[in-house]
Design goal:
Length: 228
């Protein structure tokens, strides 16, 4: 996906480090929904790292289903979330990820996480259709002849070479740049948030924005690579 070896392995190492951090946060004592959210982030970051390693290819369909269901889980959490009275809110933990109560994600962050999981499922599907590291190879003339002979149809004409592979980048090339720009902008927002917290000396709840920053920047880079 990424031609530059230094950039590819650097991003892979960053994703693996962030995935291990998410596993650590998921293992800590916290509400079940928070632990599940960290676990899903760990799985997504690990899957993105595996996509960058040459020669490593896991079945795309199970992963697509898992992250698709994860997107719906975040949507259901956002829909079922109810605002709490101001008297019981912890305003010191306020932020775009934790919301007004510590350990409780805000509705906006839940919807953003749903979009991230859906984008991950979409990326897996696109990479599987394109053959992970490029468009699917065009069928050879011998293979087409064998196919025609198998069906017994001498009148069956092979489609033009590369007609199907050429159709795949046509629709993926339209969405990949848009998603790359969108996740790049999201990464900028998370980066500004972390800088503000660093200047104020407030590191409480900085783990989740860090994971969001890594995932959004990685998504932007990988979608930009798909658009090329």
């Amino acid at each position: 996906m990424i031609a530059n070896d230094v950039a590819r392995w650097g991003l892979t190492a960053l994703l693996l480090a962030a995935s291990l951090f998410a596993v650590f946060r998921a293992s800590r004592r916290s509400p079940p929904a928070t632990r599940v959210a960290y676990g899903l982030h760990a799985a997504m970051l690990a899957a993105m790292a595996a996509m960058l390693v040459p020669g490593v290819r896991w079945p795309a369909l199970p992963q697509t289903m898992v992250f698709g269901l994860a997107a719906w889980w975040f949507v259901l959490r956002a829909v079922s979330r109810r605002p709490r009275p101001l008297a019981v809110q912890n305003i010191t933990a306020a932020g775009p990820w934790h919301g007004r109560r510590e350990g409780e994600a805000s509705r906006g962050s839940l919807l953003y996480n749903a979009l991230t999981m859906a984008a991950m499922a979409y990326m897996l599907a696109v990479m599987d259709l394109r053959g992970t590291h490029g468009t699917p190879a065009a069928p050879t003339a011998a293979g087409l002849a064998d196919l025609a002979a198998h069906h017994g149809g001498s009148s069956a004409r092979p489609s033009p070479a590369g007609s199907l592979p050429a159709a795949l980048p046509e629709w993926t090339s339209l969405s990949a740049p848009v998603l790359a720009v969108a996740f790049g902008a999201a990464g900028a927002v998370w980066g500004v948030l972390l800088l503000r917290r660093a200047r104020r000396g407030n590191r409480t709840g900085s783990g989740a924005p860090f994971l969001e920053l890594v995932s959004s920047v990685s998504m932007a880079v990988m979608f930009a690579a798909l658009a090329v």
